[in-house]
Amino acid sequence: MQFTSEQRHDDGVLEREFTLGDIPGILWTPGSASAAAPATLILIGHPPLGLRRMYPRLAARARHYAARYGFAAATIELPGSGERPRWPEIEQARAGLREAMAAGGPVGGEIIDALVLPLVEKAVPEWQAALDACLALPEIGGPAGYEGGVISVGVRLAAVEPRIAAATLFAGSFVPESMVEEARRVAVPLLVLLQWDDEGNDRQASLNLFDALGSKEKTLHANMGGHTGVPQFELDAGARFFARHLKR
Predict the structure, then answer these.
(1) What domains can you pick out in the chain, each with its CATH number?
(2) What is the pLDDT of residues 51-63, one digit of tens each?
């Protein structure tokens, strides 16, 4: 991990941009974080729209967690997005998805598999590498949480990474059948946020995935509204959820 810039905000939160090999990322730490009192880490995922485009939303969530709840937060650019090299296979799958949705028909499993499975295979090890790098810093401690992003990435990470002790997932229906089966292996506490009127997701498919998740403790918060209308109060609900399961 190489830090490339830093700034201290008025709320005391330290924001540092970094690179991990060729992967850009951002780390936020509360002013209280130190080697003697390390801050618990939350990894903040996002859709493959580019880190710069998503920055306002990511920074608002991270700084809220850091300033009000004492969490550190980190995010990284997804493969094929933002400033990273284009990924022709994913670009082709996205084009197929756009065509299927424009035609008004169902999105076939082949398109979903081609869009999601390669991203999961590449992104999850990168998130694990980011977790390695962050936890190596003296002011950051574990266990860690994961929030948001592509739900299939979150499912895989929660299933295979033992340092992830709790996760908040944003419900989505573009999930390969193999990931639904993989969801049964997830055992960590989960909070799943579902937008009831999400124009881009099938509600029943999202509920089916929630049902498949193997965690003994899992909570579903369903709110009225479209894809980007998650209520602000869910940010505090998520922070309290992480505080229950991550802070000792």
Answers:
(1) 2-84+118-246 (3.40.50.1820)
(2) 999 999 999 999 9
